[in-house]
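Provenance

Sequences were taken from public entries as deposited. Structures were produced by running a predictor on each sequence independently, with no templates supplied. The record for ABC transporter permease from Streptomyces bambusae is shown for reference.
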Amino acid sequence: MHRAPAPGGTFPPPRWATAAAHAVSLIVLPSSLWRIALVLGFPAGYTAEGFVPFQTLYAQLAMVLLSAASEFIVLLTFGLVRPWGETAPRWIPLIGGRRVHPLAATVPALLGALGLTWIWSDLPWWWTYPHDDMTSTGGLVVGLLYLPMVLWGPLTAALAVSYWRRRRHG
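Predicted structure for ABC transporter permease:
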């Protein structure tokens, strides 16, 4: 099916890309919520001794910041399929209302995708490592919550390539 360019001269994102951007948000959310549960004092699968390190202010701050950063990156991923990823929103100082150069979004997205793929590449072997600080059920649940994260990098890469293909001649 051939689609016509939008009024701005670029093609709209394919349906699979929009679905992939939404999938990324659903992939990342469970791990963020799990970390917030730890911050709120719920052991979330840890033994009493294993949970102690998570009760420090530093650990709690780190978990909140990691969750916020993860969700912010997910929000940026939506820019690869939304109009504000092609034209900067007017409220942004200095660049508001200007067209986003395709490389300005594609290069960081591809570098991020590479980093995310590397970070999460070891996760499929989660169950082969000892988790003495977790209950057996906790280890299973945490592994299942985090396992979809292996898709975050490849989906982001696919979205970046799709964005580049749509925008390169626009």
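Residues 16-167 form one domain.
The chain has a mean pLDDT of 92.
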